[in-house]
Amino acid sequence: MTSTGSAALANLARIGKLKAEPPDARERAGLLRSAAVRLLDARQATLSLESRFDLAYNAAHAGALAALRARGYRSDNRYLVFQCLEHTLGWAPARWLLLDQAHKKRNLAEYEGDLDVTEGFVLELIEHAAALIAAAQALDGAC
Question: Which of 43, 83, 127, 131 has minimal CB crowding within 10 Å?
């Protein structure tokens, strides 16, 4: 993580968007294990598209939260863990915007019962989740 990324996370904590909390290896391992299992299930074509979306979204969220926890922070806002990928993994916004779109679709489904996803979107989400989980796992050697 760059010093700019570290400063950005510290600033988010200072304004109350994140909470500083020491990293917990057991928690991170659990998040990464959960992410990997959900990703594996999301790839099961026999499941409904809605289930695959939900599994892929939650796999990505667990991976992003594991990355944030590796940096010593926690968020109560689900969307913020994706937006922090720029600072936790060095991902440019173009890499995490699909995850932000998935979050918005997830909210529409959860709170309004309206899930509008295509097979192509779910497959792309699965690819992004896989890359995110791999990058979050790689932090174990970098932190």
Answer: 127
Is residue 78 within 8 A of residue 103, CB to CB? The reply is yes
Say how far apart CA 99 and CA 94 lie, in whole Å. Answer: 10
For the stretch 119-129, pLDDT in tens is 999 999 999 99
Q: Return d(Cα 95, Cα 105) in angstroms, integer.
A: 17
C-alpha atoms less than 13 angstroms from C-alpha of 63 in its C-beta half-sphere: 29
Q: Long-range pairs for 108-111 at CB < 8 Å and ≥24 separation?
A: 109/50, 109/54
Are 9 and 90 spatial neighbours (Cβ–Cβ below 8 Å)? no
The overall average pLDDT reported for the chain is 92
Shortest CA distance to 19 belongs to which of 80, 85, 75?
75
